[in-house]
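Thought: the user wants the 3D structure for the chain below. I'll pass the sequence to the structure tool as-is, report back what it returns, then summarize two notable features.
Action: structure_tool
Action Input:
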Amino acid sequence: MPLQILPATPPTPTSRELGSLDSPPSRREFLAGLAVGGASLLLGTPARSATAEDPTAWYALVSDIHIAADPSTQLRGQVMADNLRAVVSDILAADAAPRAVLIDGDLALQKGQSADYRTVVTLLDPLRKAKLPIYLGLGNHDDRTNFREVLQGVIPHESKVVDKQTETVDGPGLRFVVLDSLDQCNVTPGKLGSAQLDWLTAELDAQPEKPTLVFVHHNPVPVQPPPPSLLDTEAFLAILRPRRQVKGVVFGHTHVWNVRQEEGLYMINLPAVAYSFAPAQPLGWCRFRPEPGGGQLELRCIGGNREADQQRIALRWREA
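Observation:
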């Protein structure tokens, strides 16, 4: 079933559907409330509607949480579950609630075990209790079968691309297209595949004038030495470059915080939540606030190198 990030008239949820603030929902109640679509899940219901002109509207962009079944698991000096708890607390501490929380892959620690996803569900529970929509993407440390079993088993699912999960999320004045670059679990390179690229082309051409950000886990830039991170990078970028409504690509995978422009497209590399590969890198997430003709990114650090905490980067969209 399709997802809308901001329903025009959000349904009034019952306490059983959402769980109360005083009594967290059981796992069965948690899963029973999921609205499922493509590469993402909607956990909960938006706490409020918003318009494109709403100056308080923003999105929480998160990546590489790497959660293990045991929440006390440590790697590279980090307790990943504690880091995700810190991100969740920071999101909830904002003066205004986000329109949605988008998590861009590598939900599981290494091999996408079912128990990993059950712990993910538990750690995201405070966001659900706050009635926030949560969209989950997949990375190379995820297992699509186990992911579906734990998070989508309650509600019938029909993928728009065979063996992939894709979704479009429409918000006022801005559109997100979430792709699935998971090729093989626990194998580093990713791949979109011809069927998904065909779907992406058709989906973009269906709304040629609406500003769009494309989400994909793997970084769409070849790295040296080979192989590249995203095996079909060139085919992917060949679709995006001439379609002027596409303003940028948001990705994770590298555990590096970086924003740059390539041929007018913003390449937004989200920091990891779980751990970094280099001490100079921050751990955290990004707050994205849409603005007329662009937007603003703010880095929110919860660990690692905090020198750039609350750094703000103005984004200005290329002309359509």
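Final Answer: Structure generated. The chain has one domain: 15-316. The longest strand covers residues 294-304.
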